[in-house]
Amino acid sequence: MPRETHEFQAETKQLLDLMIHSIYTNREIFLRELVSNASDAIDKIHFESLTNKDLLENDDSYEIFLIPDADTHTLSISDNGIGMTRDELIENIGTIAKSGTKAFLQRMMDAKKDDDAISGKELIGQFGVGFYSAFMVAEKITVITRKAGEKQAFKWESAGDGSYTIEECDKEKRGTTITLTLSADFYGDKAEENFTDTYKLEGLIKKYSDYVRYPIKMNFVIEEAPKDDEGKDIEGAEKIKRDEIRTLNSMQPLWSKNKSDIKAEEYNEFYKNLFHEWEEPMEVLHNKAEGTIEYTSLLFFPAHAPFNLYHTDYQPGLQLYSRHVFIMDNCKDLLPEYLRFVKGLVDSPDFSLNISRELLQQSRELKIIGRNLENSILKTLQRMLKNNREKYEKFWAEFGKSLKIGVYGSMYSGNDTINKLKDLLLFATSNEDKGLASLKEYIERMPESQKKIYYAAGKDRKAIDSLPQMELLREKNIEVLYLLDNVDEFAIEALREYEGKQFHSISRGDLGLDDVESQQTKKETEDIAKNNEGLIKDIKESLGEKVADVKISNRLKSSAVCLVADEQGPSFTMEQAFADANNPMFKAKRILEINPHHELFGRLQSVHEQGKDNAQFKDYCELLYTQALLIEGMLPENPAEIANKIASLMSK
Ligand SMILES: Nc1ncnc2c1ncn2[C@@H]1O[C@H](COP(=O)(O)OP(=O)(O)OP(=O)(O)O)[C@@H](O)[C@H]1O
Questions:
Q1: Are the CB atoms for 426 and 443 separated by under 8 Å?
Q2: Strand partners, 427
Q3: What topology is assigned to 254-387 in CATH?
Q4: Please, where in the chain does CATH 1.20.120.790 lie?
Q5: Predicted local distance difference test score (pLDDT) of residue 260
Q6: Which residue's C-alpha comes closest to atom 26 of ligand 1?
Q7: Best mutation site among 16, 29, 37 for ligand 1, i.e. most ligand atoms within 8 A of its Cβ?
Q8: What pLDDT score does 47 carry?
Q9: Of 157, 274, 476, 632, whose CB has the highest number of CB atoms within 10 Å?
Q10: Low-confidence residues of the chain, pLDDT below 50?
């Protein structure tokens, strides 16, 4: 195959450009990225070799080699991992598939446009861009790789200038060697950071990659004075050089050490290293369990929710080890779905080394460990909520959605997730000064006469504040939960009640207030309804299919109309959420409520006196309904017709 030149995908070009003109000062992290990739590649061959030993080609001494060369000012990172085929080279290195990286670029562009204060430096810190980070220090990168089990090796090369070349080449050992031809600032004694200096490299490996579970080796050239027969240095004699291969990383798994001997930075570095994260974790949970089942777990809550946390390309799950030996990544069977954001590992001598995923699912040990981990995470969260509200609210902002989805999901799975999670939920409320409220806090603040927990859903505070349905509750000083996230209302539906108090949407059904005043208003409203039976019936008839019912309202104060949904069916926001999910079948039943104390009601009565079939009455009905729709943030089906009706009414 002749040498081929390929263009980088447009997004890759942008990324390369950013890397080359990098604003990121912490350039040394490129080494951690390349070493992590090498370690991942070894994990892969190890895993594959469990079912296909031939792939190893009799070489199972996994290792990563660093080869600095001051003369050619290159640094190579070599591994005997899985390697890449030609297609994989193009797929993995020439294109950006990761949604995180795409999101990174988007944010970068947005930041540029808005002249945003978020600097590129911080952004790189949040995302991480793997292989490409090497272009921060290299003017050219050469990848030579041979996939395990294949004969042909390939050479990939790029100067980061928009294109790369691929050609066939020879490589005796399987795996990948990445050679960086260092840019002028990064080699030589005068350079501020000299990445051909063995001692500098040793320091970086200790700092970032000490726990990598395969040996990271490097050749040191040792200069020593020759020794005499008694083993003493011969003075004045010319020094002798000899090579010594050293393993740079301790490989001692952090989790096997005593908790009290581990510093916070060690946990942080370990986490960043193992999970390719760039930020310190929000929380670390390190537990050793002894007893019927023995295991050690080291779990982390990331600082931020990943962009794809709720997408199918997100890989939840923990790493499994048995006596420090890696078994598998992304084991989903340990933690419930609502904890999909938790990263970490479990090491247990009770796991068998080459257990299949299918068998694992049935493992009794795994179930018990999973339950223990879930409990310990829930306890941590309960403690955080009680003792460190600020931190908990940060957690909630990142991962609250997961817990709410968990509550919603329990509607189908029928387990006791609700009981586990209900006290951990936080909601915004109409009482803005008090910040977010747990359901317990809300209940504690409820006046005795209030029997239900009221909630309203909307896209933001302002939208809910301006709902006509809020008027009465505001006047009565009744606190309302503000459901601002799509999933909130679904979670509330699943909860049904909290400590014996039912949830009640302010936009659905009767409010059910039973203080003396409300009882009185209710009676009044019933009387008005009775006296206007004919009018109500005719409005309903005129609106036809559009509404399920028309009612005289006892909840409106200053607004003329509002639309409420039927108590049984979905609400308007749920209808919207269903529609967004391509499920337009679920429609809320619309009930038009009319304020009998509004001036317009009198007008309506007099127009109605001219008969239910007169055109003006029909227009009034239509416009009242449209108003109510608009207040709910919904558009009428026939906006042009409505506009004409308004215009003709205004000109009268
Ligand atoms: N040494 C290697 N051996 C085999 N494959 C590699 C090696 N280095 C990189 N790759 C492949 O190239 C892909 C892209 O690497 P890159 O570092 O850009 O991203 P990543 O490792 O997937 O993610 P990140 O490092 O940001 O977590 C990897 O997923 C892997 O498939």
A1: no
A2: 437
A3: Ribosomal Protein S5; domain 2 (3.30.230)
A4: 522-650
A5: 94
A6: 130
A7: 37
A8: 86
A9: 632
A10: 115-118, 125
